[in-house]
Amino acid sequence: MSALTTDLDLKVPVIAAPMAGGASTPALVVAAARVGGLGFLAAGYKTPQALSDQMDTMRTEGVSFGVNVFAPNPVPVDATAFRTYAEAIQVEADRYGVTLPVGEPVEDDDYFEDKIDLLLANPVPVVSFTFGFPAPGVVKALRAAGSTVVFTVTSEAEALLAVDAGADLLVVQSAAAGGHSGTITPLQVPAETPITELIARIRHRTSVPLLAAGGLATSADVAAALHAGAEAAVVGTVLLRTEESGASAPHKSALADASRGKTVVTRAFTGRPARALRNEFIDRYDSQAPVGYPAIHHLTNPMRKAAVAQGDPERMHLWAGTGYRHATAEPAEVVLARLINL
After folding, report:
1. Which CATH class for the 1-74+109-240+325-342 domain?
2. Which of 23, 231, 278, 320 could form a disulfide with 324 if both were Cys (CB 3.0 to 4.6 A apart)?
3. How do residues 113-144 score in pLDDT, each as one tens digit?
4. What is the β-pairing status of strands 126-130 and 274-277?
Protein backbone atom coordinates (compact mmCIF):
# COMPACT_ATOMS: atom_id res chain seq x y z
CA MET A 1 0.00 0.00 0.00
CA SER A 2 1.47 3.37 -1.04
CA ALA A 3 1.99 6.30 1.30
CA LEU A 4 -0.62 8.20 -0.71
CA THR A 5 -3.17 5.45 -0.21
CA THR A 6 -2.53 5.57 3.51
CA ASP A 7 -2.65 9.38 3.71
CA LEU A 8 -5.97 9.57 1.88
CA ASP A 9 -7.46 6.46 3.46
CA LEU A 10 -7.98 4.94 0.00
CA LYS A 11 -8.75 1.26 -0.39
CA VAL A 12 -9.47 1.69 -4.10
CA PRO A 13 -7.96 4.32 -6.45
CA VAL A 14 -11.02 6.47 -7.10
CA ILE A 15 -12.01 9.89 -5.80
CA ALA A 16 -15.27 11.80 -6.21
CA ALA A 17 -14.32 15.26 -7.44
CA PRO A 18 -15.51 18.43 -5.73
CA MET A 19 -18.16 20.04 -7.93
CA ALA A 20 -19.12 23.49 -6.70
CA GLY A 21 -22.59 24.90 -7.04
CA GLY A 22 -24.48 22.04 -5.43
CA ALA A 23 -23.56 18.91 -7.38
CA SER A 24 -21.25 17.56 -4.68
CA THR A 25 -23.39 16.53 -1.72
CA PRO A 26 -22.55 14.78 1.55
CA ALA A 27 -24.40 11.74 0.19
CA LEU A 28 -22.08 11.64 -2.82
CA VAL A 29 -19.04 11.87 -0.56
CA VAL A 30 -20.38 9.03 1.59
CA ALA A 31 -20.95 6.90 -1.51
CA ALA A 32 -17.31 7.33 -2.51
CA ALA A 33 -16.18 6.28 0.95
CA ARG A 34 -18.42 3.21 0.90
CA VAL A 35 -16.65 1.78 -2.15
CA GLY A 36 -13.29 2.42 -0.50
CA GLY A 37 -12.50 5.71 -2.19
CA LEU A 38 -12.65 9.33 -1.07
CA GLY A 39 -15.06 12.17 -1.72
CA PHE A 40 -14.67 15.94 -1.53
CA LEU A 41 -17.04 18.60 -0.32
CA ALA A 42 -16.90 21.67 -2.55
CA ALA A 43 -16.44 24.84 -0.50
CA GLY A 44 -16.79 27.04 -3.59
CA TYR A 45 -19.80 29.38 -3.60
CA LYS A 46 -20.83 28.31 -0.10
CA THR A 47 -20.92 30.50 2.96
CA PRO A 48 -18.59 29.37 5.75
CA GLN A 49 -21.63 28.35 7.77
CA ALA A 50 -23.01 26.19 4.96
CA LEU A 51 -19.62 24.52 4.60
CA SER A 52 -19.41 23.98 8.35
CA ASP A 53 -22.85 22.35 8.34
CA GLN A 54 -21.81 19.92 5.61
CA MET A 55 -18.57 19.12 7.45
CA ASP A 56 -20.63 18.33 10.55
CA THR A 57 -22.81 16.02 8.47
CA MET A 58 -19.74 14.17 7.22
CA ARG A 59 -18.40 13.73 10.73
CA THR A 60 -21.74 12.29 11.78
CA GLU A 61 -21.44 9.80 8.92
CA GLY A 62 -18.03 8.75 10.26
CA VAL A 63 -16.18 8.61 6.94
CA SER A 64 -12.97 10.25 5.75
CA PHE A 65 -13.44 13.18 3.36
CA GLY A 66 -11.77 16.18 1.83
CA VAL A 67 -12.70 19.82 1.31
CA ASN A 68 -11.86 21.78 -1.83
CA VAL A 69 -11.37 25.54 -1.65
CA PHE A 70 -11.15 28.19 -4.38
CA ALA A 71 -7.78 29.89 -3.92
CA PRO A 72 -7.98 33.63 -4.58
CA ASN A 73 -6.78 34.28 -8.11
CA PRO A 74 -9.05 37.03 -9.38
CA VAL A 75 -9.01 38.27 -12.94
CA PRO A 76 -10.35 41.82 -12.66
CA VAL A 77 -12.83 42.64 -15.38
CA ASP A 78 -12.62 45.75 -17.52
CA ALA A 79 -15.46 47.97 -16.31
CA THR A 80 -16.51 49.07 -19.80
CA ALA A 81 -16.47 45.51 -21.14
CA PHE A 82 -18.47 44.40 -18.10
CA ARG A 83 -21.23 46.96 -18.71
CA THR A 84 -21.32 46.20 -22.44
CA TYR A 85 -21.73 42.50 -21.76
CA ALA A 86 -24.35 43.10 -19.09
CA GLU A 87 -26.41 45.17 -21.53
CA ALA A 88 -26.08 42.50 -24.23
CA ILE A 89 -27.25 39.58 -22.08
CA GLN A 90 -30.01 41.44 -20.22
CA VAL A 91 -32.40 40.36 -22.99
CA GLU A 92 -31.87 36.76 -21.85
CA ALA A 93 -32.57 37.61 -18.22
CA ASP A 94 -35.70 39.46 -19.33
CA ARG A 95 -37.22 36.09 -20.19
CA TYR A 96 -37.54 35.45 -16.46
CA GLY A 97 -38.22 38.98 -15.27
CA VAL A 98 -34.71 39.22 -13.81
CA THR A 99 -32.63 42.39 -13.72
CA LEU A 100 -28.91 41.71 -13.81
CA PRO A 101 -26.59 43.47 -11.31
CA VAL A 102 -24.96 46.07 -13.56
CA GLY A 103 -23.41 48.28 -10.89
CA GLU A 104 -19.83 47.88 -9.75
CA PRO A 105 -18.43 44.43 -10.65
CA VAL A 106 -18.17 42.10 -7.66
CA GLU A 107 -14.55 41.01 -7.16
CA ASP A 108 -14.81 38.94 -3.96
CA ASP A 109 -12.62 36.06 -2.69
CA ASP A 110 -15.39 33.57 -1.83
CA TYR A 111 -14.83 33.97 1.94
CA PHE A 112 -11.34 32.51 1.57
CA GLU A 113 -9.89 33.56 4.93
CA ASP A 114 -13.04 32.57 6.82
CA LYS A 115 -12.98 29.13 5.21
CA ILE A 116 -9.31 28.64 6.08
CA ASP A 117 -10.08 29.67 9.68
CA LEU A 118 -12.88 27.08 9.72
CA LEU A 119 -10.58 24.34 8.40
CA LEU A 120 -7.92 25.21 10.96
CA ALA A 121 -10.42 25.22 13.82
CA ASN A 122 -12.10 22.02 12.63
CA PRO A 123 -9.43 20.10 10.66
CA VAL A 124 -10.35 17.63 7.94
CA PRO A 125 -8.16 14.85 6.51
CA VAL A 126 -7.54 16.51 3.14
CA VAL A 127 -7.75 20.11 1.91
CA SER A 128 -7.39 20.79 -1.80
CA PHE A 129 -7.13 24.05 -3.69
CA THR A 130 -8.06 25.03 -7.22
CA PHE A 131 -7.60 28.24 -9.28
CA GLY A 132 -4.33 29.00 -7.46
CA PHE A 133 -2.02 28.20 -4.57
CA PRO A 134 -2.43 29.59 -1.05
CA ALA A 135 0.34 31.40 0.79
CA PRO A 136 3.06 29.28 2.45
CA GLY A 137 1.72 30.20 5.87
CA VAL A 138 -1.67 28.69 5.01
CA VAL A 139 -0.07 25.46 3.81
CA LYS A 140 2.08 25.22 6.94
CA ALA A 141 -0.89 25.87 9.23
CA LEU A 142 -3.09 23.27 7.52
CA ARG A 143 -0.32 20.68 7.73
CA ALA A 144 0.19 21.48 11.41
CA ALA A 145 -3.54 20.91 11.90
CA GLY A 146 -3.16 17.44 10.41
CA SER A 147 -4.50 18.00 6.89
CA THR A 148 -2.91 16.71 3.70
CA VAL A 149 -2.63 19.64 1.27
CA VAL A 150 -3.46 19.17 -2.41
CA PHE A 151 -3.02 21.62 -5.31
CA THR A 152 -4.72 21.44 -8.72
CA VAL A 153 -2.50 21.87 -11.78
CA THR A 154 -3.10 21.77 -15.52
CA SER A 155 0.44 21.73 -16.96
CA GLU A 156 4.03 20.76 -16.25
CA ALA A 157 4.90 24.37 -15.43
CA GLU A 158 2.07 24.64 -12.91
CA ALA A 159 3.04 21.31 -11.37
CA LEU A 160 6.58 22.47 -10.67
CA LEU A 161 5.29 25.71 -9.17
CA ALA A 162 2.88 23.74 -6.98
CA VAL A 163 5.65 21.51 -5.68
CA ASP A 164 7.70 24.60 -4.82
CA ALA A 165 4.61 26.04 -3.09
CA GLY A 166 4.49 23.05 -0.76
CA ALA A 167 1.88 20.66 -2.16
CA ASP A 168 1.76 17.21 -0.55
CA LEU A 169 0.22 15.88 -3.75
CA LEU A 170 -1.17 17.16 -7.03
CA VAL A 171 -4.45 16.80 -8.87
CA VAL A 172 -3.42 16.86 -12.52
CA GLN A 173 -6.43 18.12 -14.44
CA SER A 174 -6.62 17.81 -18.21
CA ALA A 175 -8.57 20.13 -20.49
CA ALA A 176 -11.18 17.37 -20.89
CA ALA A 177 -12.52 18.09 -17.39
CA GLY A 178 -16.00 19.46 -16.96
CA GLY A 179 -16.66 22.78 -15.26
CA HIS A 180 -13.96 25.30 -14.50
CA SER A 181 -10.38 24.66 -15.42
CA GLY A 182 -8.21 24.75 -12.32
CA THR A 183 -5.48 26.60 -14.17
CA ILE A 184 -3.60 29.31 -12.31
CA THR A 185 -3.36 31.30 -15.57
CA PRO A 186 -7.03 31.71 -16.59
CA LEU A 187 -6.21 34.22 -19.31
CA GLN A 188 -5.00 31.20 -21.27
CA VAL A 189 -7.11 28.15 -22.09
CA PRO A 190 -5.12 25.02 -21.19
CA ALA A 191 -3.79 22.91 -24.04
CA GLU A 192 -5.83 19.86 -25.03
CA THR A 193 -3.23 17.39 -23.79
CA PRO A 194 -4.59 13.89 -23.05
CA ILE A 195 -4.58 13.11 -19.34
CA THR A 196 -2.30 10.09 -19.79
CA GLU A 197 0.31 12.21 -21.56
CA LEU A 198 0.03 15.00 -19.00
CA ILE A 199 0.44 12.56 -16.11
CA ALA A 200 3.43 10.92 -17.75
CA ARG A 201 5.14 14.26 -18.40
CA ILE A 202 4.66 15.47 -14.84
CA ARG A 203 5.61 12.07 -13.39
CA HIS A 204 9.04 12.52 -15.00
CA ARG A 205 9.48 15.93 -13.37
CA THR A 206 8.47 15.27 -9.76
CA SER A 207 8.11 12.49 -7.21
CA VAL A 208 5.08 14.12 -5.58
CA PRO A 209 2.08 11.74 -5.83
CA LEU A 210 -0.33 12.52 -8.66
CA LEU A 211 -4.10 12.20 -8.99
CA ALA A 212 -5.55 12.20 -12.52
CA ALA A 213 -8.63 14.25 -13.40
CA GLY A 214 -10.43 15.19 -16.59
CA GLY A 215 -12.56 13.12 -18.93
CA LEU A 216 -12.25 9.88 -16.94
CA ALA A 217 -15.60 8.19 -17.46
CA THR A 218 -14.93 4.48 -18.02
CA SER A 219 -12.91 1.75 -16.34
CA ALA A 220 -10.54 1.83 -19.33
CA ASP A 221 -9.98 5.58 -18.78
CA VAL A 222 -9.18 5.00 -15.13
CA ALA A 223 -6.86 2.08 -15.87
CA ALA A 224 -4.98 4.14 -18.47
CA ALA A 225 -4.49 7.03 -16.05
CA LEU A 226 -3.16 4.70 -13.37
CA HIS A 227 -0.84 3.03 -15.89
CA ALA A 228 0.50 6.46 -16.89
CA GLY A 229 1.61 7.14 -13.30
CA ALA A 230 -1.39 8.45 -11.39
CA GLU A 231 -2.09 6.87 -8.03
CA ALA A 232 -5.83 7.48 -8.20
CA ALA A 233 -8.47 8.82 -10.57
CA VAL A 234 -10.65 11.82 -9.77
CA VAL A 235 -14.07 11.64 -11.44
CA GLY A 236 -16.84 14.21 -11.58
CA THR A 237 -19.04 14.42 -14.67
CA VAL A 238 -19.73 10.68 -14.67
CA LEU A 239 -21.36 11.17 -11.24
CA LEU A 240 -23.60 14.09 -12.17
CA ARG A 241 -26.66 11.98 -12.98
CA THR A 242 -26.37 9.71 -9.96
CA GLU A 243 -29.05 9.56 -7.29
CA GLU A 244 -26.75 11.30 -4.79
CA SER A 245 -25.78 14.15 -7.10
CA GLY A 246 -27.10 17.60 -6.30
CA ALA A 247 -27.08 18.66 -9.96
CA SER A 248 -30.33 20.28 -11.05
CA ALA A 249 -33.01 18.36 -12.94
CA PRO A 250 -32.50 20.30 -16.20
CA HIS A 251 -28.75 19.71 -15.96
CA LYS A 252 -29.24 15.97 -15.51
CA SER A 253 -31.72 15.90 -18.39
CA ALA A 254 -29.33 17.74 -20.69
CA LEU A 255 -26.58 15.22 -19.92
CA ALA A 256 -28.96 12.46 -21.01
CA ASP A 257 -30.10 14.30 -24.16
CA ALA A 258 -28.85 12.31 -27.16
CA SER A 259 -29.13 15.39 -29.40
CA ARG A 260 -26.43 17.28 -27.48
CA GLY A 261 -23.12 17.40 -29.26
CA LYS A 262 -19.56 17.84 -28.09
CA THR A 263 -18.66 19.93 -25.09
CA VAL A 264 -17.00 23.32 -25.49
CA VAL A 265 -14.80 25.53 -23.34
CA THR A 266 -16.43 28.89 -22.66
CA ARG A 267 -16.08 32.05 -20.58
CA ALA A 268 -19.65 33.13 -21.31
CA PHE A 269 -21.07 32.27 -17.89
CA THR A 270 -18.25 33.16 -15.48
CA GLY A 271 -15.44 34.94 -17.30
CA ARG A 272 -13.13 31.99 -16.62
CA PRO A 273 -12.52 28.96 -18.89
CA ALA A 274 -15.02 26.18 -18.16
CA ARG A 275 -16.16 23.14 -20.15
CA ALA A 276 -19.89 22.74 -20.74
CA LEU A 277 -22.52 21.31 -23.04
CA ARG A 278 -23.04 23.75 -25.87
CA ASN A 279 -26.32 25.67 -25.67
CA GLU A 280 -27.98 28.80 -27.06
CA PHE A 281 -26.37 31.16 -24.56
CA ILE A 282 -22.87 29.96 -25.41
CA ASP A 283 -23.57 30.16 -29.14
CA ARG A 284 -24.79 33.74 -28.85
CA TYR A 285 -22.43 35.23 -26.28
CA ASP A 286 -19.21 33.27 -26.00
CA SER A 287 -17.41 35.53 -28.46
CA GLN A 288 -18.64 38.63 -26.59
CA ALA A 289 -17.84 37.47 -23.05
CA PRO A 290 -15.07 39.47 -21.37
CA VAL A 291 -12.38 37.84 -19.29
CA GLY A 292 -13.11 38.50 -15.65
CA TYR A 293 -13.65 36.21 -12.69
CA PRO A 294 -15.59 36.29 -10.39
CA ALA A 295 -17.28 39.42 -11.77
CA ILE A 296 -18.91 37.66 -14.74
CA HIS A 297 -19.96 34.76 -12.51
CA HIS A 298 -21.83 37.16 -10.23
CA LEU A 299 -23.31 39.02 -13.21
CA THR A 300 -24.87 35.95 -14.83
CA ASN A 301 -25.76 34.11 -11.63
CA PRO A 302 -29.32 35.49 -11.25
CA MET A 303 -30.14 34.57 -14.84
CA ARG A 304 -28.71 31.07 -14.45
CA LYS A 305 -30.67 30.46 -11.25
CA ALA A 306 -33.85 31.63 -12.93
CA ALA A 307 -33.18 29.35 -15.91
CA VAL A 308 -32.80 26.38 -13.57
CA ALA A 309 -36.05 27.27 -11.80
CA GLN A 310 -37.83 27.45 -15.18
CA GLY A 311 -36.24 24.21 -16.41
CA ASP A 312 -34.54 26.06 -19.28
CA PRO A 313 -31.21 24.42 -20.19
CA GLU A 314 -30.39 27.00 -22.85
CA ARG A 315 -29.50 29.81 -20.44
CA MET A 316 -27.80 27.88 -17.64
CA HIS A 317 -24.32 26.48 -17.29
CA LEU A 318 -24.37 22.80 -18.22
CA TRP A 319 -20.92 21.89 -16.92
CA ALA A 320 -19.73 18.63 -18.43
CA GLY A 321 -16.49 16.88 -19.27
CA THR A 322 -15.79 15.17 -22.56
CA GLY A 323 -16.98 11.79 -21.23
CA TYR A 324 -20.44 13.04 -20.27
CA ARG A 325 -22.29 10.44 -22.35
CA HIS A 326 -21.15 7.81 -19.85
CA ALA A 327 -23.02 9.54 -17.00
CA THR A 328 -25.90 7.32 -15.89
CA ALA A 329 -28.88 7.59 -13.57
CA GLU A 330 -27.78 5.02 -10.99
CA PRO A 331 -26.58 4.99 -7.39
CA ALA A 332 -23.12 6.55 -7.15
CA GLU A 333 -21.70 3.41 -5.56
CA VAL A 334 -22.64 1.42 -8.66
CA VAL A 335 -20.96 3.93 -10.98
CA LEU A 336 -17.80 4.16 -8.88
CA ALA A 337 -17.53 0.38 -8.50
CA ARG A 338 -17.83 -0.05 -12.26
CA LEU A 339 -15.01 2.45 -12.86
CA ILE A 340 -12.62 0.31 -10.84
CA ASN A 341 -14.07 -3.05 -11.90
CA LEU A 342 -15.34 -4.05 -8.44
Report:
1. alpha beta
2. 320
3. 999 999 999 999 999 999 999 999 999 999 99
4. unpaired
